[in-house]
Model the fold of this input.
Amino acid sequence: MTDEPTSDSMLVQAWRGGDKAAGERLVVRHGPRLYNFFAGKVAEGADQLCQRTFSQCLTDSGELGDGPEPVRQALFRIARVVLLDHLNRLTQQRQRNQHAGRQHPGEPRTIDPEADAIADLGEPVSEVVASRQQQRQLQQALRQLPLDTQIALELHYWEGLSPDAIADIVQAPVARVRQGIEQSRRRLRTLLDAQQAQEDRTIDALATEDGRGSS
Done:
């Protein structure tokens, strides 16, 4: 009896060779982190986007190195492409709906991940994120950053990926990624402080209004 493959790269190769059980093990290992990756950026459909990511990993002919890092890195690189395709489809569909009936609706909008933020694309916060107050505040702040910046911060702090790995995922120079992580961390703190100040003002206003109503 042979040992089951245990490393990520071996699981991928076995899955590509027709071993469905190997694919299931890979999904168990990496499915939750991919789901969180998508759930912070789309209101619904995170499960389907995870499936698309794993399907592309299955059909990709690229070689993967040993150890968990290369496979995880490859999955996030695929996930980013899947996410961009999904967001482009949603954005272009909204554009078509807005311009329905016009003779010249204009060129379809293509998302620039280095400049466009999720908050600017009209994509609401998912119910999974919205149900947790502290997580919601952080996600709302992250969603105001350019998409690739949001991805870089999440992968750096939540996944512990190196700037070199992140640079491969977002297809950017390593030096830019390193500089961007530090600058974006400060920007994120400013956004979180502004959110907290706004919530405090809202609570104060409600308390004042309630006090007037009871007098």
